[in-house]
Amino acid sequence: MTRPLRTGHELWLPEYNTLIVNSRIRAVHQRSALAHGVGHAAHGHEDDRPKHEKQADKFAAQNLIDPDELADLYKWCPDEQRVIHELGVTTRLFRAYVLAHPPAA
User: Fold this and answer.
1) Is there a contact between 84 and 91 (Cβ–Cβ < 8 Å)?
2) Rounded to an integer, what distance in angstroms lies between the CA atom of residue 87 and that of residue 66?
3) Which residues have C-beta within 8 Å of that of residue 20, sequence separation ≥ 6?
4) How confident is the model over 37-49, as pLDDT tens digits?
5) pLDDT tens-digit series, residues 48-94
């Protein structure tokens, strides 16, 4: 569900099995926040310690970024910010993806 949140992009409430996405943020951030929150749910997280945040980012990145599309985009345009925009993800999730899947040398 979406609701205005004072802080943060999403809020995972495991005791209610509910994910709230901030309605006041741009669509690209809502999409990334939703995938991130689903990552928390999928991993059974009950808090937002740094390790859990990294796991949720990795989950979101792997589910939002298609490796073939990314490879095609790199051929078309080497500019990282343009690639991120074309993928429709946040820079944070893009970097989480690249960290987990370094480009071939």
Assistant:
1) yes
2) 9
3) 1, 2, 3, 5, 10, 11, 13
4) 999 999 999 988 9
5) 899 999 999 999 999 999 999 999 998 988 899 999 999 999 999 99
Q: What is the dihedral of CA 28, 89, 81, 54, to 10 degrees?
A: 130
Mean pLDDT (the chain) is 94
Retrieve residue 44's tokens.
Answer: 């059974």
Q: In what order do the strands lie in the sheet with 18-22?
A: 2-3, 18-22, 10-13
> Are 22 and 4 a contacting pair, CB within 8 Å?
yes
DSSP collapsed to 3 states, the chain = CEECCCCCCEEEEHHHCEEEEECCCCHHHHHHHHHHHHHHHHHCCCCCCHHHHHHHHHHHHHHHCCHHHHHHHHHHCCCHHHHHHHHCCCHHHHHHHHHHCCCCC
Query: Where along the chain do its domains lie?
Result: 2-100
